[in-house]
Amino acid sequence: MVKPALQVAAFVERLPHRPYCTDDPAQGLLIRPQATALAYRHIQHNPPPHVSTLVFDVDRADGCHAWEDVGLPAPNWVCLNVRNGHAHYGYLLTAPVARTSAAKQKPLRYLAAIEHVLAKRLGADMGYAGLITKNPVHSDWWTIWHHCEPFSLDYLAEFCPDADLAAYSRRSRKEVGGLGRNVTVFDNVREWAYSAVRSYWRPNGFEAWADAVRAACESSNAFGREQGGPLPHSEIKATAKSIARWVWRHFTPSEFRAIQAARGAKGGKVSKGGGRPSKATSLLPLVLQLKAQGYSNRDIAEDLGIGSASVSRYLSKISPE
Fold this sequence. Notes:
321 residues; alpha+beta; Endonuclease III, domain 1; Arc Repressor Mutant, subunit A; 3 domains; four-stranded antiparallel β-sheet; 13 helices; elongated
C-alpha cells in the first residue's frame, strides 16, 4: 500500500540512529543503522534517553478498532497483523520526555500514569516492554496512517479519568509496567542514595559512588515478564549516571555541616522557634538535608514543625520540571 510521506517522515525522524531491530523477536535483537533497521519487521521506536512515541500492544482479534470502541483519539498509526487482528498503536508526542534524567522526573511520572491508564482503557497488553514495535513501514504489516499531528501530554490526559490517574500513583510494585518501571527504579534508588552518599564523601570518591548507584539500579531492575521484564542495560546505565551526578551535586559535606549546625542549637533537633524558616523555598533545603541524614518523613515533620504531608510535597520538588 502507498505510505503517506508526511506520516512516514514523522515516524522515522523519531527513531534512534542505531535502533534495535529483528524479523523475529524470539530470535533476539540486532543493532543496525537506521536505514538498515527499517528493512526489519520490528524496530526500536524510542532512543534510550527519552520517549517521543507511545506505543500500545493490542493483542486481540479486534485490535484495529479498539481506540474507537473506547472513545480515544485516533493514533498516528495502527500497525496490524492481518492474520490475527493484533495491532500496535503509535501516538507521537509533541515533546520528548526524558526517562533517564534524575532532574526531570515529573514529566516522566505524568507520562507513565497516562500510558498506564490508556493501556487499561484499550485493553492493551500491560506486560508489553515497549522496546520494539511492529515496523509500520514494513510490507508484512497492514498500516493505517491516520495523521502526523503529535499529542501533548495534557491532551492525552483528558482521556484519562482523574480517579484512574490518582489510583496509579498509589500502585503497588506488582502493578508496575511500561514507563512505570523507570519511575520505580528512580524512586527506589534515590531514597537509598540520599543517605548512602555520605559514605563516599572523600577525595576521588565519585567513581566509587557511581559504581554503587549503578549496582543499586541493577538490583532494583528486577521486573517480571508480566511487567515488561527488566529495563534495557542502556537505560539502567544512563539512569544510574544521572542519579549519581544529581545526588553528588546536591548533597555535599558543606550542606551537611550547615544542617548539623542548625540542628545543634536544640541538641540535634531543629529549633521550632522564631528563627525557623517559614517559606517553602527556605524549608526545602532543610527537608532535603534531613532526608539525606536518613530521617523519616515523620521525624522531619516533627523537627520542622510541619505536617508529614508537607514533607512529602517538599520531597516531590527535588525533581524540577
